[in-house]
């Protein structure tokens, strides 16, 4: 007796439901997250400063190796200058979404975007 190996109705339902679930998670990722509202800059001593994401400013941050420059402009944040050797923090580029961060481990400086109304208690990638 030979059985057919084609797509059965249950297989089709499973494929469609997985596609719908993936699409809804993708849409939620771009529309369901609270708008970011602040930028927090940390050093090895703790919170250095907190500024609004919507104000344009340049922040000189004292670090372990020297001074890092963080710039907030047009709702985006980026590391303008850092004394570290590999400059990975500068190559991170501009960030603008809640939960994103820029890390300069050699200089012990981190920049995190957050939201006052976000109900997150943890973030995982």
Strands, helices and their partners?
Layout: H1 9-31, E1 38-43, E2 46-52, E3 57-62, E4 67-73, E5 76-81, H2 88-91, E6 101-104, E7 109-114
Antiparallel strand pairs: 1-2, 1-7, 3-4, 4-5, 6-7
* Uncertain residue ranges: none
Strand content: 25-35%
Spatial strand arrangement across the major sheet: 2-1-7-6
Count of DSSP H/I helices: 2
Distance between the termini: 49 Å
What's the CATH class of the domain at 38-114, please? Mainly Beta
Class per helix and strand makeup: alpha+beta
The CATH superfamily of the domain at 38-114 bears the name N-utilization substance G protein NusG, insert domain
Helix content: 10-25%
Q: How many DSSP E strands?
A: 7
Spell the H/E element sequence. Answer: HEEEEEHEE
What's the average pLDDT? 86
- Taking all Cα atoms into account, the compactness measure Rg is 22 Å
Major sheet, described briefly? 4 strands, antiparallel
**CATH architecture heading of the domain at 38-114:** Sandwich
Provide a quick synopsis of the model.
With 125 residues, this protein is an alpha+beta fold. The chain is built from 2 helices and 7 strands. It is elongated, with a radius of gyration of 22 Å.
Task: For this entry, give a set of tags.
elongated; single chain; alpha+beta; four-stranded antiparallel beta sheet; 125 residues; 34% strand; mini-chromosome maintenance (MCM) complex, domain 2
């Amino acid at each position: 007796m030979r059985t057919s190996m084609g797509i059965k109705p249950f297989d089709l339902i499973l494929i469609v439901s997985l596609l719908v679930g993936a699409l809804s998670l993708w849409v939620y990722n771009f529309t369901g997250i609270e708008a970011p509202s602040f930028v927090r800059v940390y050093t090895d001593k703790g919170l250095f400063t907190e500024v609004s994401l919507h104000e344009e400013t340049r922040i000189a941050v004292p670090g372990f190796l020297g001074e890092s420059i963080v710039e907030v402009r047009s709702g985006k944040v980026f590391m303008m200058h850092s004394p570290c050797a590999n400059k990975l923090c500068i190559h991170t580029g501009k960030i603008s979404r809640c939960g994103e961060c820029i890390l300069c481990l050699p200089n012990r400086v981190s920049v995190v975007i957050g939201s006052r109304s976000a109900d997150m208690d943890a973030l995982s990638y």
